[in-house]
Amino acid sequence: MKDLDQKIQAALREQRGAAEMLAEPNIAQEVITAAFRGRHRALTTFTFVFSFVLFVGSVWAGVKFYHAATVTAQLQWGGLALLLIMMVSFIKVWFWLEMHTNRVLREVKRLELLLVARGGAE
Q1: List of residues 6+ apart from 58 with CB closer than 8 A
Q2: pTM of the model as a whole
Q3: I need a surface site. Which of 27, 36, 78, 115 has the fewest CB within 10 A?
Q4: Domain of 31, in residue numbers
Q5: Total domains, the chain
């Protein structure tokens, strides 16, 4: 059992210091450090850029909607703008779920650190 505790403690030391582990990051630090430095950083970067492109496309479709001459054209451009905005919203929800997963993993690591520290004091 002590061997397992020592392995956990060594693994936690390799990842981050105990003081840094116990610090609570603000939302900007959480987005930047956890999301873009995690194991899914390529996917997160791709979805971030893709959501920006979709947002620009929705603004473009909204401008086309405003300048459309016929009702049919307005419905088409308005539908496209709505679809693009919905896609951006879905990506943002996915991003927030990833942040929540990172937050839960950080709390589990904190608990491991506290258990190892408490076990070492006995």
Answers
A1: 80, 81, 84, 85, 88
A2: 0.66
A3: 27
A4: 2-121
A5: 1
